[in-house]
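Please go through the sequence line and token line underneath and see whether the fold suits the sequence. See right below:
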Amino acid sequence: MTTKKAIGGALIAIVVKFASDILASLAVGGLFLLGVPEWICIAVMGVLYLVTTLILVKLIYNKAFKLSKEEIGMKKSAPKPAYIILAAALPALVCGILLLTKGEFVMSAPDTQARLAAIAGITYNVIGAPVVEEVLFRGVIMNLLKKRWNTVVAVVLPSVLFGAVHIMGLEEPNPADCVQVVIAGTLVGIMFSLIALRTGSVWNGALVHAVWNLVMCGGIFAIGAQLSEGSLVTFVMQSKSFLLTGGAFGAEASVIAIAAYFMVIIALAMSGKAVRTRLQHS
């Protein structure tokens, strides 16, 4: 794998992410103008985002780059019990701790249509986004960089990029919010990267990612310093500390979540080292 091909392929993956999102948004915008209910449009957008990405990945990397599914981390992989447990335990731990802080539950969606729109957001936040991000960041980009350089580069660089991309989700970012989001996003990226490396594919990481999004930002529930209009219910924290609330990004960037990501990373790294040691002495 040449440097030009690795970097070019990684940059194309970023273009694919935004192009798929834009194309899905334009298509759904047309449906909305035709009078299709908003909640249906939101649901369709999540599906189109996912389908468009998978089609482009197949055309670009399987056909043009001549890379197999295995080479970009997309080989079939059944859910492994350890990651099913992790998928449930991670959001439960973070939410459990944050819900012990002072705050109140507030209904975010005031009417039926708004509630339907929030529920429909599950297709984008829980089905579309997790799979797209795992396929592109932990599948395509990580494996291209790994082929050209090494595992450390392949894990760290896409993870920092993953964190930086999430700055775009901030409505009015300030420096503190940006730094916190990048740190949280980078650690999340490393965590999912280690899962992909351990399992040889992106699908177990996508499962953990999907359940995390379902609980934390899927459209049903949210935790943060302010009301989330995209969720049915928000636990609005009274704390003024952006470290605890996660600032403008919400609970996913809180110090509690960051600590949880770090603990999982350590556990994955240590278990991976133990496996390698056993193999060396077998």
Observations:
- Residues 70-280 form one domain.
